[in-house]
Design a protein that fits this description.
The protein is mostly helical. The protein has 16 helices and no strands. The chain starts with a helix and ends in an 18-residue tail after the last helix.
Length: 348
């Protein structure tokens, strides 16, 4: 995290600045598409987005730690400890945890509904005991916490020109679209972890089961039945992208190029899957670097234009000030924020 970004965001405490920097490092290492897109936000917005995604990656690392010495019980204990630390931090606004400190500060500054974090942790806990999802509705319930709420968390940081309650379902759908794309891209790698993040009923309709997926993974061949199932699920995912897209125009103008860039790059992964005729069990579909660079340059042009308009009209998103802690807050009780979002991410 650069000093300019932290200064613009109003983060001056040295320990808190270090916490935000840690979150940025997590995102730079783990998510090329997300990290590239965040470069298109204003300096004052980037620390908050890094805090939100950094925490999500921290929790995900606990669930997916590849260390074979870790037992399921140890992973569950670590996740429960993180959940307890998170709840305390959201209540008090403070934490000694290197990632949660930044998250708590962001949640307080932007008055993010705590439910979005508890729903996220609930889905992370599911990953420790659920290895497959019988129906699309079952998968959708998981993705509400693992993906839709990420869009809802980020929405206050991005700011909107429409009422937030109208933009929220589209933001939730975008998170779901991104995650469904990941599930399709990573189906082979997930199999190695013993998981299937594709609805079993949709697979079974084409004669596909776990054994056939494992055979494709092992042999490097893609059975025609698997191609048909993945083709249908790609089309389902395209429908979620269509549901999400109107929300981009509801965002503050300076935030639109960032989200549009992420939208285009993630949808391009879906295009690469389709171009490979859905042969993704043994190799990952990747958007070429030149394509990513071209999309990012387009985003830069859009953000420059939006910032120029903002400089003339004075409509840049304000820097949120961290609310003062009341005696009630310090005593461990906090009023529940106004609930102005709703669940989204409806699949078809």
């Amino acid at each position: 995290m650069t000093a300019r970004e932290l200064d613009a965001a109003g983060v001056h405490d040295p320990a808190l600045r270090a916490a935000y920097t840690r979150c940025r490092e997590l995102n730079a290492r783990h998510g090329r598409t997300y990290f590239l897109a965040t470069r298109l936000l204003t300096a004052r917005q980037r620390p908050a987005v890094h805090a939100l995604y950094g925490f999500a990656r921290w929790a995900d690392d606990i669930v997916d730690d590849l260390d074979p010495a870790l037992t399921p019980e140890q992973r569950a204990e670590a996740l429960a400890e993180l959940d307890g630390t998170l709840l305390t931090a959201l209540r008090t606004g403070r934490s000694g945890h290197p990632v949660i400190a930044a998250l708590a500060d962001t949640a307080a500054r932007y008055a993010i509904d705590p439910r979005h974090f508890t729903d996220f942790m609930r889905s992370m806990a599911m990953d420790l005991r659920v290895t497959e999802y019988p129906t699309l509705d079952d998968l959708r319930a998981y993705m509400h916490g693992s993906a839709a709420v990420i869009g809802l968390q980020v929405l206050p940081v991005l700011d909107t020109v429409a009422p937030r309650v109208e933009a929220a379902p589209h933001a939730a759908a975008l998170g779901v679209a991104f995650q469904l794309t990941n599930f399709l891209r990573d189906v082979g790698e997930d199999l190695e972890r013993g998981r299937i993040y594709l609805p079993l009923d949709r697979l079974a309709a084409h004669g596909v089961d776990r054994a056939l997926l494992l055979w494709c993974r092992r042999t490097g061949r893609t059975d025609a039945r698997v191609r048909a199932a993945l083709r249908e699920l790609c089309e389902t995912t395209r429908g979620v992208y269509r549901e999400a897209e109107p929300g981009i125009g509801m965002l503050h103008p300076v935030s639109r190029p960032c989200v549009r860039t992420a939208f285009v790059l993630y949808r391009a992964i879906l295009e690469r899957i389709e171009a490979a005729d859905h042969a993704v069990l043994h190799r990952r579909a990747v958007v070429p670097r030149r394509r990513r660079a071209a999309v990012a340059l387009g985003g830069l042009a859009g953000i420059a234009a939006a910032r120029a308009r903002g400089a003339l009209t004075g409509d840049l998103p304000r820097v949120p000030q961290r609310p003062r802690r009341t005696a009630e807050d310090r005593g461990g009780t906090r009023r529940t924020p106004r609930r102005d979002t709703q669940r989204g991410g409806v699949l078809s």
